[in-house]
Structure formats: structure tokens, C-alpha cells
Design brief:
Length: 81
């Protein structure tokens, strides 16, 4: 019986470590999404001040939105799993 109890404890510890690792990785991707969104907003604001071409602003906005969405989805899927 002692061996079985040890195996159960090792299994619980392994499961807890995997859960913590997934949570940390998911939070990392959510933080990346926040950073990309913030950078997009800053670049958009600065480009309005220095009078950049409209096409360049549009491309940066679309890229920022796509990257933000992608990182958020990756983080969500990791946390959901």
C-alpha cells in the first residue's frame, strides 16, 4: 500500500506542475498580446503627430490587431487545455 500512495503523490505533483506551467505560459501570451496592443497604440499616436502616410498607419494597425488577436487566442487555448 505504501508504494501505491507514493505513486499517487508523484502523479498529483506532476499534474500540479503541468497545470502551473500551462498557466504561466498562457499568461505569457496574454502579456504579449497586451504589449503588442500597447505598442500599436503608441506607434499610431506618434505617427499621427509626425504626419506619416495613411497607408503605413493602416498597415501597422492591421498588423497590430492581428498579432494581438493571435497571441490572445494562443494564450486562451493554452489555458483552456
Amino acid at each position: 500500500m505504501g508504494n501505491f500512495a507514493r505513486q499517487q503523490e508523484v502523479r498529483r505533483e506532476t499534474t500540479e506542475k503541468e497545470k502551473l506551467s500551462r498557466e504561466t505560459l498562457g499568461k505569457f501570451f496574454f502579456d504579449l498580446a497586451k504589449l503588442v496592443f500597447t505598442a500599436m497604440a503608441l506607434v499610431g499616436g506618434v505617427s499621427l503627430i509626425i504626419d506619416e502616410p495613411q497607408t503605413k498607419q493602416g498597415v501597422l494597425a492591421v498588423m497590430g490587431i492581428l498579432l494581438t488577436y493571435t497571441f490572445a487566442i494562443i494564450g486562451y487555448k493554452i489555458l483552456k487545455r
